[in-house]
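Quick one, C-alpha cells below. Sequence please?
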C-alpha cells in the first residue's frame, strides 16, 4: 500500500502527515513514546509512514469520532477517545464510507496527482479497542507531556491536545474555518452553539500556553502551518452573535453534503460556521 504521504516537520519531533487532502495526522515524539493524533480516513500504510519518522512505541488518540479521523485505526489495535463519542460513531468507518469520502478530493482537485488507488483503502479485520480519554488526561511521552481537554461542539466528545513543549494546540475539528455544528435538539450527537462557544472560550483562556493552533484539515491553511490568529476570535464572535440573535444568515453552500441541507451559515473573514437555528441554544 502507498506510503507517499506529504509530510512536514512543524517543530523538533513534531510532524503533520497529509492523508491526500482528506485530513491530517500529527505525530509527536518524546524520549520514550510517540503520540499519534488521529489516523485519517485510512488510505495506504500510515503505520509504516509513521515508523519512518520514529521508532518509538505509539500511543494513538482521536480528537473525535468521525470516520475521516478514525478510519485508519485498524492498523493500530487501540486508541483513546472521549467516551461521549462512543455511542454515536463506529470504532472505525466502514470501507464504503471511507472510499466514498476519499473519492471526493480527486474530483475537487482534478489538477492534483494523488498516489493512491481504491486498493489502498482496505477492510481492517482485527478488532479495535477504544479506551476512554478524560478531560485533563496527560500523555507522558518521556520529557514531553501532552494534555487532552474536552471541547464539545463539532461532536459531543471533541477534544484538543495541548503540547506545551512545542507550544502547539492540536484541535481536530473543534476549530477550523469551516466549523460544522449543525445538529438539532433530540438528534444523536447534538451540541448547541452555546456549548460550543464555551469550549472555544476555554481555548482562548489557554492562549498563553500555545503559539499556534493546528486543526485536523489543512484546507484553510498551508500544510505544516497553523491557523491564522484571528480564526479563534472570529469563531467566538460569530457564535456570540448567534446566541444574542445579532446575525445575518446565509444559505448553506451547495457543495456541502446533502445531510446538511436546511442549515445556514454565518461568516467573518475566512471563518464560516454552519448551524441550524434550532440548535443555537442549550435545551431548557
Amino acid at each position: 500500500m502507498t506510503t507517499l504521504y506529504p509530510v512536514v516537520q512543524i517543530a523538533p519531533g513534531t510532524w503533520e502527515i497529509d492523508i491526500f487532502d482528506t485530513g491530517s495526522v500529527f505525530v509527536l515524539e518524546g524520549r520514550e513514546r510517540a503520540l499519534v493524533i488521529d489516523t485519517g480516513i485510512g488510505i495506504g500504510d500510515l503505520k509504516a509512514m509513521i515508523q519512518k519518522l520514529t521508532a518509538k512505541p505509539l500511543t494513538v488518540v482521536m480528537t473525535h469520532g468521525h470516520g475521516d479521523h478514525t478510519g485508519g485505526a485498524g492498523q493500530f489495535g487501540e486508541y483513546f477517545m472521549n467516551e461521549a463519542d462512543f455511542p454515536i460513531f463506529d470504532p472505525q468507518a466502514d470501507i464504503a464510507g471511507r472510499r466514498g469520502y476519499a473519492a471526493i478530493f480527486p474530483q475537487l482537485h482534478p489538477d492534483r496527482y494523488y498516489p493512491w488507488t481504491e486498493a489502498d483503502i482496505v477492510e481492517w479485520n482485527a478488532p479495535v479497542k477504544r479506551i476512554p480519554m478524560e478531560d485533563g488526561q496527560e500523555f507522558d511521552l518521556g520529557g514531553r507531556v501532552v494534555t487532552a481537554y474536552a471541547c464539545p461542539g463539532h461532536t459531543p466528545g471533541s477534544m484538543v491536545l495541548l503540547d506545551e513543549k512545542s507550544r502547539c494546540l492540536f484541535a481536530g475539528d473543534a476549530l477550523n474555518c469551516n466549523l460544522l455544528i449543525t445538529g438539532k435538539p433530540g438528534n444523536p450527537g447534538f451540541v448547541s452553539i452555546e456549548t460550543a462557544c464555551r469550549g472555544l472560550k476555554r481555548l482562548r483562556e489557554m492562549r498563553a500556553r500555545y503559539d499556534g493552533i493546528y486543526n485536523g484539515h489543512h484546507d484553510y491553511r498551508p500544510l505544516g502551518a497553523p491557523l491564522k490568529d484571528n480564526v479563534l476570535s472570529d469563531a467566538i464572535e460569530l457564535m456570540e452573535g448567534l446566541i444574542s440573535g445579532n446575525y445575518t444568515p446565509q444559505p448553506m453552500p451547495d457543495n456541502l453534503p446533502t445531510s446538511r441541507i436546511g442549515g445556514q451559515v454565518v461568516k467573518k473573514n475566512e471563518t464560516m460556521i454552519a448551524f441550524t437555528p434550532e440548535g443555537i441554544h442549550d435545551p431548557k
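The first helix runs from residue 46 to 53. The chain has one domain: 7-279.
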